[in-house]
Write a structure and sequence with these properties.
The structure is a homodimer of 684-residue chains. By secondary structure, chain A is α/β, with parallel strands linked by helices. The first copy, chain A, is 28% helix and 23% strand. The first copy, chain A, starts with 6 loop residues before the first strand and ends in a 28-residue tail after the last helix.
C-alpha cells in the first residue's frame, strides 16, 4: 500500500490503513485484524460481513468521504437483499470495494467476537469465540492425475481458504463426506471444533453447499440434586432454552457421601449411578432440543461442570477414593471427550464434551466454573466466594493469590435433616420475620407473594398448602429466633416462661418454636426444634470454619466482600446469614449473590475457547487447603458454634442489628453443651 | 567424566566413554545412546538390561579388563537368577557398576531396537521400534496438600522417569486407573501407544506392579478373497500365530467391482458388507488369540493393508465412488482409529488400528505396503513390482522416481472364469509340462509332491482327486501349449490334425486341449478351452499394458528386474510368465518372487513406527498413472494380445525357449480375431 492509496478507517475499533483501489472491504478488515465475520470466505453467500459505510466529513479522522468512495451496489448484494432482506445503508463487505477514503462501521452483529452481556448483576461480558465455528469452503474436484482423497482436498481447502493447518475427521464424517461433497457441488459448510490444547481442528458436522444453520452448545451444571442446562447459540451466545431435571441419582442417596457409600456397598452400584445420570442428561438434551424446535444434531458441544463425585460418576469412575482421605481424584485436569463416550445420543454424534478441571478431591469442576465466572484471581479486593451445597466450596483471594477449600456443611442448608424441612418448592416457607416484642412470626411461602399476615394469604396458599421450611427459610427462622430472643447465643431455645411466648413448647427435654400449626384442621405443624437449631449450628460452624481457615492461611482477619454463589446463595437473606454467623463479619452491602455462578462459568467456557485454557491455568495456581487435616479447622468449628460465632467482635453486624443478651443455659442439660455435637460428620 | 575415569566400551556398537566409578552400566549405556533395553527403568525388576561383561586383554580396544572392573554380583541379581534364571556370565546392567575399564557386550535380546531378519529371500531386516512400548513407573502417592489427580501424577512419573511429555488416557483407562495404582502399591506398568504424527502417547493398557507381559500386534492383509493375519510379538517381532480366513464378502460378489455394484444396487448393501468383513476380522482375531493361548486384551495394535474398496468397506464408507471415474477415495492418507471404531472386540478395547495410506483410487494401502516391503524408491536399478490379484497393482521405479498404476486383469489369473478353473486348493493342478514332441501333459496337483506320470501318483491323489486348474496352473498350461505348438502366437488352439494330438478336441467352432479326463470313472474332464486362452490373453495383455504404460511414462524400454508380489507371485513359474508375455522381457534370474509383500509391509509398519511416517512420505511422492484414461494403455493392450506379445523382440526370452512358428489361424473364424475381445472389462 502506498500513501496515495485510499485510507480505510473502521469503527468502532478505530483501526485504519491504506489499501489499493479495488480492495474489498472484507479483505481490508482481515489485513487490519478488524473483527468482521464471514462464514463463506467472501463469496457473497453468507452475508455475515455486512458493514455500514459512513459518508460526509469526519474531522476526528481527518477525512471527507464521498458517495463514490465505494464501488456501486452490485447484483450479488441486490440478490441477497431481495432474498433475505438487508438493513438500509448496509453493504456486503466482500462486495463493496475501496474507491476512495472511507469510514466503515462494523455493526455488533457482524463481529465474530461479539460480546454478550451476561444477565447477572455483575454485567461482565463474554467475548464470543467458541470452540466450534462454521466454515464454508470450495473443495477441488477429484483428479485422476492427482488422486488425493476427498478428505485431503477438503483439508487443503480449509488450509488455503481459512488458514486452518490440521484437520481430522471422525469415522462418521468420513462415511458421509463423499455424498455431501457431491450434493453440494464441491461446496460444503463444515463445523470445526478446535482443541485448545493441540489446536487441531476436528470436523464435527458437514452440510452440502452453504448452510446457514444455527449451531448450539449445552452449558450443563450437573448438581447432586438438580441438573440444569442452557442451550446456547454458538454464534451469538444467546440462551435459547434453559431447562432442568432432578438428578435421578437421588434414589441412590440424597447426598454425595451416601452415593459414594452406595457404590462401596453394592457391586455395580457406581455403574448403576453412571447409567442413571447419563440417561438423565440424554433425556434433558432431547427435551431441550424439542423445546427449542431444533434437530439434536445441531447441538455440537457441551460444557459440563459438577462436583468431583458427580464428575467421576459421569465418567464411569468409581468414586470410592473420594470418600476417604486423601480424597484422590482419578484425574484433576480438564477432560474432553465425545458425546458417545458418555452415551449421549440426543446431540450430534460427533459433539465434543468439555469438563472443566477439578481443583481438588472436594473442590470440583463446579468450583472451577465459579472461579471462571467470578474471577477472584482478577479481583482487586479480597473476596470470599461461598458456594453452598451439600458441601460448601469456598474460595478466598485477590489478584496474585487464591485459596480454596471445601467444608462439610451437610444437607441442613438445603432443608434436609430439619424436622419440618423440605426442598425449595411451592408451599415451603422461604422467608420469616419474628416480632421481637410479641415473638409472633409472619412468613411467606414459595409460590405466593403475600406475607402470612396479609389479606388473602390463606386463599392464595389454599392450593399449595403450607408444607414445611426450605433451606433459606430455616436460616431466616434461626436468625430471627436469635434476634427475637427465642434462642440464646448458645443456640438453646427458651421455654414459654423464659421467652414469654406460648409458641415455645416443650419437646422431651428441650423446646421447639411453633411457626405454624394446622393440626386442628388436619394440616401439619411447622416448628423449629432444638435438633434443628443444632443441625444449623453444625452447618454454619463448618461453613464459617472453612472461611476462617482460608483467612488464616491468607493471614487476614477480614475480607473485603463476600459473594454467595449457587441457587442457595441467590435466595438467602444476607442479613440473616450475617446474624447466624455463617460468613465472616462484612459490610452488608458487600455481601452479594452471584446466582448460579457455576452455570455461568459453564456458559463462559462454552462461548469462549480461551476461557478454557485460562481457567486450566488459574486452577493450577489455586492453593488448596484441606479442611479434613487442619487442626485449626476443628478449633474454628467449635468456636463458631455460638450464634453468631463467639470468637470475633462484629462491628459490621452491630450496624444492622442489636442482639438480645439472653441465656437459657440451665446447666447440666446435655443439649446445651455444644461440645457434644462436635463430632465431624461424614462428608458428602 | 574425566580422563582418569574408567573406560566403558560397548559391543557390538563400539560406542565408548569414560564414566565415574560407581556408574551403573545401564546409565552409561543410556548416556552413550547404546541400545540397551529396560522396562523397569533400572530398578532390577525387569531384567531386560542383561549384558555380558568381557574380561581379559582387548588389543583392538586398547584395554585390559580385570575381574574387578565391575561391582560384585549382588543380591538383586541373585534373586532374579533364582527366580527366573539367567545365563552364565550375564549381569543386570542396572546393578553392575563401573569399577575399572570394561568391555560390555549387549546380546541381541537386550537390545530395544533389535533387528528381526525377515524370512523372505530378500533377507532385509526390520528394526524393532513399535508404536507400543511398556513402561514401568513409580507414581507419587496422592497428597491432600497437592491434590492432583492420579492420572496427572502418573503422567508426571512418565515424564520424569521416561521423558514422555504428553500422555492421554481413554475413558476406560481412567475408569481402572485408581484401583490398579493402589493394587500395585503405586507401581504400575503401562502400555503406551505413540502417534507418529503428533507424538502424543496414549495409555492403552495398565497393570498393577511390574508386569512382564508379552504384548502383541496383528499385521492384517485384508484381501478381496482371503484375510491373512500375523500375530506378532511387539517386543521382538516374532510371529506367534499366522492364520487366515476367507473374506465373507465373497457372498456379495467374487470380485471387487461386483461388490461395488452390490453396494450401488442394494440399499444398505455397503453396510452389510462392512458388518461382514468386521465380523470376520473380529472372529479371526479371536481365533488367533485362542491358538496363541493369550488373552485378547494383550493384542494392543493392528496394522491393516488392503485395496481401496476393502479399505472403504472396512471403514464403513460406501465404495460407489471407486466404481466410476475419477475413482475418488474418501481419504487417501493413513487412518488411525480405535478397535471399537471397527467393532473389533477380540482385542484390547483401547487397541489402535493403523491403515496405511492409499496411493490412488485403484492403488491401495496394499500397494503402499508392497512399496514399504520392496522399497522401489531405494532401489539402485529399475524395478518393476507386480502384485497380481483381481486387479494387478504395478510399481515401476528406482531411487528418485517411482510410478504406480493398477491394471484391470480380471479374475482369470486366480482361476476364476476359466472352464476348469478353481481356487488354489488341494486337488487343483498347479504345475504342468507338455512334451513338445508327443504333446502329452504331465502335471502336479496341490497337496501331492509327485508328478502325474510318477509311480504312486494315483494313490497319492486318491483322497483329494484331481478337481481343476488353479491360477498358476492355467498360466503354465497356456505357456506350455504355446511351447508345444498346440496354440499359435495369436492364441488359437489347433485341431487334432493340425497339432497331431487327439487331446485337441473340437468344441463348437473352436478346440480344447484335454489335460485329464476321468469322465469314464465318473470324474471330471479337465481341459483348456479356446475361451480360457482368450481370458488369459485379456488378463496378461492388461498386465503387460500396465507395465508398458509405466515404462513409457518413465521413458525406458527395459526394466532391470521384476518382482512378483502376492500369493500368486509366489506360486507362478517365472519362465512361463515370460513365455506368456505377462511381464516385459527380462533376464530369467532377474524375475523374483517377493511372497506376500503386502503382508510383509504390514508387519514392518507394525514393528517400526518410523516406517509409518516413512511410507506416508514415500506414497506422496509416487507418481500415479491412471490406466483408464491413457489411450496408450489401450494400444499396448491390443498389441499385447499375442503370445508372447507382438511388439518387441525378446532377447531374454529367446535365451530360455524357442517357440514354434505355427499358425492355426484359418481366417474368417470369429474367435481368431483378437480385436473382438478388445472391449475393456469393468474393473474389480
Amino acid at each position: 500500500m502506498s500513501s496515495t492509496d485510499p485510507l480505510v478507517i473502521f469503527t468502532p475499533s478505530g483501526k485504519r490503513g491504506r489499501f489499493p483501489r479495488g480492495t474489498p472491504i472484507l479483505t481490508a478488515a482481515r489485513q487490519l485484524g478488524v473483527d468482521l465475520d464471514s462464514v463463506c470466505g467472501g463469496r457473497g453467500i453468507c452475508s455475515k460481513c455486512q458493514v455500514t459505510p459512513m459518508f460526509g466529513e469526519f474531522p476526528k479522522h481527518g477525512v471527507i468521504v464521498t458517495p463514490d468512495a465505494l464501488s456501486p451496489w452490485n447484483a450479488v448484494e441486490q440478490r441477497y437483499k431481495d432474498k433475505r432482506g438487508m438493513k438500509e445503508g448496509r453493504r456486503l463487505g466482500c462486495q463493496a470495494r475501496v474507491q476512495g477514503d472511507v469510514v466503515i462501521d462494523v455493526p455488533p452483529e457482524s463481529q465474530v467476537h461479539r460480546q454478550v452481556v451476561r444477565k447477572e448483576a455483575t454485567a461482565r461480558v463474554i467475548t464470543m469465540d467458541p470452540a466450534t465455528h462454521l466454515h464454508f469452503v470450495e473443495v477441488a474436484e477429484p483428479d485422476m492425475h492427482e488422486p488425493s482423497g476427498d478428505l485431503e482436498r477438503l483439508a487443503a481447502a480449509l488450509r488455503d481458504q481459512w488458514g486452518i493447518e490440521t484437520v481430522t475427521a471422525p469415522p462418521s464424517i468420513l462415511r458421509r463426506l463423499q455424498p455431501v461433497l457431491r450434493k453440494g457441488g464441491w461446496q460444503v459448510t463444515v463445523a470445526l471444533n478446535r482443541d485448545h490444547h493441540d489446536h487441531a481442528a476436528r470436523i464435527t458436522e458437514i452440510w452440502p453447499g452453504y448452510a446457514d444453520h444455527r449451531i448450539y452448545g449445552l452449558a450443563i451444571d450437573l448438581g447432586s440434586t438438580t441438573i440444569a442446562a442452557h442451550l446456547t447459540d454458538l454464534r451469538n451466545g444467546e440462551v435459547k432454552v434453559a431447562a432442568g431435571v432432578m438428578n435421578p441419582q437421588i434414589r441412590f442417596g440424597e447426598d454425595l457421601m451416601s452415593r459414594v457409600s452406595y457404590a462401596m456397598m453394592n457391586p455395580g452400584g457406581a455403574a448403576e449411578m453412571t447409567a442413571a445420570v447419563r440417561d438423565a442428561l440424554d433425556e434433558l438434551a432431547r427435551s431441550i432440543a424439542r423445546q427449542a424446535g431444533i434437530a439434536p444434531e445441531l447441538i455440537l458441544e457441551a460444557v459440563i461442570v459438577c462436583n468431583p463425585v458427580m464428575h467421576h460418576l459421569l465418567l464411569g469412575i468409581d468414586p470410592v477414593e473420594l470418600g476417604q482421605a486423601p480424597f484422590a481424584l482419578a484425574t484433576s485436569d480438564s477432560v474432553t471427550l465425545g458425546a458417545r463416550d458418555l452415551d449421549l445420543a440426543a446431540m450430534n454424534e460427533n459433539a465434543r464434551i468439555y469438563l472443566l478441571p477439578c481443583i481438588a478431591g472436594h473442590v470440583g469442576a463446579d468450583a472451577a466454573a465459579v472461579a471462571l465466572a467470578e474471577e477472584p484471581h482478577n479481583s482487586d479486593d479480597l473476596v470470599l466466594i461461598v458456594d453452598v451445597g451439600t458441601n460448601a466450596e469456598l474460595q478466598l483471594g485477590r489478584r496474585g493469590r487464591v485459596l480454596a477449600c471445601s467444608s462439610p456443611t451437610g444437607p441442613a442448608f438445603e432443608g434436609a435433616q430439619i424436622s419440618s424441612g423440605q426442598r425449595a418448592a411451592p408451599g415451603a416457607i422461604e422467608r420469616i420475620e419474628i416480632d421481637p416484642v410479641t415473638k409472633e412470626p409472619r412468613f411467606r411461602v414459595i409460590g405466593c407473594d403475600l406475607w402470612s399476615d396479609e389479606d388473602g394469604f390463606a386463599e392464595a396458599v389454599a392450593t399449595t398448602g403450607i408444607t414445611g421450611i426450605c433451606g433459606s427459610g430455616i436460616i431466616e427462622a434461626v436468625a430471627e429466633m436469635r434476634i427475637a430472643g427465642i434462642i440464646d447465643a448458645s443456640g438453646l431455645i427458651g421455654s414459654a416462661e423464659q421467652t414469654g411466648t406460648p409458641r415455645c413448647v416443650a419437646e422431651g427435654r428441650t423446646h421447639a418454636y411453633v411457626i405454624h400449626d394446622a393440626t386442628a384442621t388436619g394440616g401439619p405443624r411447622i416448628a423449629v426444634s432444638q435438633g434443628d437449631i443444632r443441625a444449623i449450628q453444625l452447618a454454619k460452624s463448618a461453613l464459617y470454619a472453612g472461611a476462617r481457615l482460608l483467612m488464616d492461611e491468607m493471614g487476614v482477619d477480614r475480607v473485603d466482600r463476600v459473594v454467595l454463589a449457587g441457587a442457595f446463595g441467590a435466595h438467602i437473606s444476607t442479613r440473616h446469614a450475617l446474624v447466624l454467623g455463617m460468613i465472616p463479619d462484612c459490610p452488608l452491602d458487600k455481601v452479594t449473590s452471584a446466582g448460579n455462578a457455576a452455570g455461568t462459568g459453564a456458559r463462559i467456557a462454552l462461548c469462549n475457547i480461551g476461557a478454557r485454557a485460562g481457567i486450566e491455568r488459574v486452577v493450577r495456581e489455586i492453593t488448596k487447603v484441606e479442611t479434613a487435616i487442619e487442626p485449626r479447622f476443628q478449633e474454628h468449628f467449635v468456636a463458631a458454634n455460638a450464634i453468631p460465632h463467639a470468637t470475633d467482635p462484629f462491628p459490621e453486624l452491630a450496624k444492622i442489628v442489636t442482639l438480645p443478651d439472653v441465656s437459657f443455659n440451665t446447666g447440666g442439660r446435655g443439649d446445651g453443651d455444644p461440645g457434644r455435637r462436635r463430632r465431624r460428620r461424614s462428608r458428602g
